[in-house]
Structures are given as C-alpha cells and as structure tokens.
Design brief:
single chain; 215 residues; mainly beta; eleven-stranded mixed sheet; two-stranded antiparallel ribbon; 6% helix
C-alpha cells in the first residue's frame, strides 16, 4: 500500500497561504458543472504489477480557470481541482485513450478508483486518495475536499483536441458534472516507478519533471 504522505496534500489540509484576518474574504462559489481549463496527466506505467495487474495507471488533475500551479508546484489561486489518482488503461497505452471510464475497484482498463480517505495505521488524520474534488478558497481555512463515490467520465478526441464530460456523485450525495476541451499537460514518471524512486502516487497534482504538451 502506498504510504508516503505528500507535502502538498498536507498543505491543502492545513491551508495553502497565510490568511489576512484583518481583510474579509468572499467565499468561493462552488460550481456543480464547472468548466475546466487545464488538465495534467502523469503516467505511472504498470504501477500495480506487484498485485498481478499488468494494466497501466495514470493520474489526472483538472483545474478551473483561476486555479493552477506556481514554479514550486504549489496550488495558487481559487477554484476547483478534480483529481483522479488511479485511472487504468491498457498496457499498450500511455496517453488517456477515448472511451467511457467508470468508477470501479477492479483495476480493469477504463476504470478509476473511487474517492476515500487513506489513513496510516495509528495515524490521527488521513489524506485523500482515488477520485475527489478540491475546493480551494481565498481563505485557506475554508478549503474542502469531497470524495467521488459514483459516476463516470467520457473522453473523446478530435483534431488532437480532448473533450471530457464528467457525471459524478460525491460522498454528500450531490451531483458533480463538469467539462474540459483542449490539450493536456503530460509527464511520464514510469521510469522512476520502475527504479523505485517513487513509492506513492502524488495525491495532488505535482509534476515530477518538466511539463510538456501531449500534442
């Protein structure tokens, strides 16, 4: 089981930036059907090969307009970030192929793990894993994470441009949709996985090498 808590996830849980208590901060208005403007894919290869799974695994992180990563790979801005730490594809694939991806724990191609809190034995608090939505506020104390427990997303490609349509339910029984249209940022960390230089999927979108466009 992956067991290294990534610094950024802790930063999210504690708050990303210092809050000026003298200045009132307007709350972020949650969107139930957001338009994502940036997508980061990290390719991990046959990450679960030790568990008799030959399928490849990748992570996806989708950002709304006013949310992104700075030069230190820390989240900046406000908005929503949709994260999938385990998306399964065929062994021959590296880049997310067209198709419908369903929430399931089977590790079969075109499935992804549902969201839940991962907690080390004896730990007081856990970290998010699987599929989840992060609401990043100007006031870090109001940041929230909701886990995705049902649903699917559909991927299509035309003229080297991706389209993603999401249709989920979160752990509080609310619907969460969302769309994306454009190109991906892509990074390949599979060699580091083979070398055991990486022992845990990034629970938050942090490129481990320079980002490059898929197309």
């Amino acid at each position: 089981m992956r067991n290294i808590i990534h610094t950024l996830c802790v930063l999210f849980l504690l708050g990303f930036t210092a809050c000026n208590t003298n200045t009132p901060v307007l709350p972020y208005a949650y969107e139930t059907n957001p338009q994502y403007t940036k997508v980061l894919e990290e390719f991990y290869g046959a990450y679960y090969s030790n568990y008799n799974c030959k399928n490849n695994v990748l992570t996806l992180s989708l950002f709304t307009k006013d949310l992104g990563l700075d030069e230190q790979n820390q989240l900046v801005g406000v908005g929503q970030c949709l994260v999938f730490t385990d998306v399964f594809i065929h062994p021959k694939d590296t880049i997310l192929p067209e198709g419908t991806y369903n929430l399931a724990e089977t590790k079969e191609p075109f499935t992804f793990f549902g969201g839940k809190e991962f907690k080390e034995k004896g730990a007081i608090s856990g970290i998010p894993s699987g599929a989840y939505i992060c609401y990043v506020e100007a006031d870090p104390s109001k940041n929230k994470i909701k886990y995705i427990t049902e649903g699917s997303f559909i991927v299509s490609i035309q003229n080297k441009e991706y389209t993603i349509h999401c249709n989920f339910k979160t752990d509080d029984k609310k619907e969460l949709k969302g769309t994306f249209k454009g190109a991906f940022y892509f990074t390949d960390v599979s060699k580091k996985v083979k070398a055991r230089a990486i022992s845990y999927h990034t629970p938050f979108p942090v490129p481990t090498q320079p980002i490059q466009w898929v197309f």
